UniProtKB/TrEMBL annotation:
Protein name: aldehyde dehydrogenase (NAD(+))
Entry keyword NAD: yes
Locations listed in the record: Mitochondrion matrix
InterPro entries: Ald_DH/histidinol_DH, Ald_DH_C, Ald_DH_CS_CYS, Ald_DH_N, Aldehyde_DH_dom
Any single GO BP term: carboxylic acid metabolic process
Keywords: NAD, Oxidoreductase
Coarse class of the protein's main subcellular location: mitochondrion
Enzyme class: oxidoreductase
rRNA-binding recorded as keyword: no
Family stated for the protein in its record: Belongs to the aldehyde dehydrogenase family.
Gene expressing this chain: LOC108985444
GO cellular component annotations of the record: mitochondrial matrix
Originating organism: Juglans regia
Reaction it catalyzes: an aldehyde + NAD(+) + H2O = a carboxylate + NADH + 2 H(+)
Amino acid sequence: MICRNIASPSRGISKYSTDVAIENPVDPPVEVKHTQLLINGQFVDAASGKSFPTLDPRTGDVIAHVAEGDAEDINRAVAAARKAFDEGPWPKMTAYERQRILLRFADLIEKHNDELAALETWDNGKPYEQSAKLEVPMLTRLMRYYAGWADKIHGLTVPADGPYHVQTLHEPIGVAGQVIPWNFPLLMFGWKVGPALACGNTIVLKTAEQTPLSAIFAANLLHEAGLPPGVLNVISGFGPAAGAALASHMDVDKFAFTGSTKTGQFVHELASRSNLKPVTSELGGKSPFIVCEDADIDKAVELAHYALFFNQGQCCCAGSRTFVHERVYDEFVEKSKALALKRAVGDPFLEGIEQGPQKEKHCSLKITQVSNAQFEKILKYIKSGVESGATLEAGGERLGNKGYYIKPTVFSNVKVFLLVIITSCIFPQRLRYGYNAKDEIFGPVQSIFKYKDLDEVIRRANATHYGLAAGVFTENLDTANTLTRALRAGSVWVNCFNIFDATIPMGGYKMSGHGREKGIYSLENYLQVKAVVTPLKNPAWL
């Protein structure tokens, strides 16, 4: 599926329309039904009795108070998952029966499309049209894709150098611990849960504390589809209490994490220090988007704009380093500026809105109010860019007085080393200062660099510790082939961007993570391979 042009400005919505689109937010067309933890098929309160607010990024107001799980709740959830795996029906079901449950789940997602989309937009801030027309249908497609795999997972019969029958068994790995991020809650729920269930595993999943609502709703639908109790347990809570307990739990057999690189390093450390559980991780990115001198500039500007500003710039694979050949640089910058100024920013529930508010991060273990760390981080990056000599072409400031809206921002003449102050809010003890333009900003800020030739742009594009994705825009096949093989990234999109079909693997090189999600490769994360060798007596053939 191509995620381009999903929403275009409609009549009545103009750029920066603060009076209608921001100051008077629309009432979301959905009711919050589930705010508790889901353990062993039941909605329950946290053992501590605590809860925390999840907030509307349009206003900063509380949407609902959600149960705040901690280590004790993780223990309860892991015990339920372990019992469901060791004694329950899920891994002992025929693959066909597991497939039928996942297909029923996909049908229920489709039935509740608008409700799920409204929860996603309300809790996250992304445009409703994006949630309803793109992301929830993609979740439906994902679950049908993995349902199709459930009865096609099998081992092999292999030859041996002697009279032996040798077969390999592909067995479920056991209890999977999973942590999903706040920028794509529903899609990341599908990326994690789909392959784990298709392979016959049980799960304890921690939602992002910033956006817990849609995943809890989806998990309830999965149980409505017939999932046995204990197979999927969902805990809402904070990283230092719930996430760390899950990553380090001795009875969790495998761990999967999507989030920042710094937190990913800590997760790998916890997993290795406990029971050396395998970890798959999809981490940060600072993806290059390379515009070659032969490019159709109008199309390149449009695609580069989409590559960066999609989802408010809150995308790990965002094309946040735009490299443009010097011969077309000035034209590209002027047209990028014009396009940014036309972008419709406002209440994400309004038709035609392309960019909603930034989602905020919680930065305290005991939350009584929201911190605007993410919002302030982006504004500090913009300020440091100006102070470092970059040219601010568009945006660069807050939009309106309510909520967390930022004008689409474009920089030209960007220096590589721009001072940025970034704080890790998942594990607050891990603070880092002094990032540069090679670091992930996670906001609507496009930085446009100039280059002279392919050797230079390859060197500069790879000069980062990230390697999640890259984009190439050219009409020359030889140029495309040269770049796709030279770029150190897990995904390279040529004349397109953000193609996230269920069949296409996603993952990073270098410090952008380990392993792959989606596609056939994702199944390997949730299977063990066992070799079974049996002697043959007087075999007719070997």
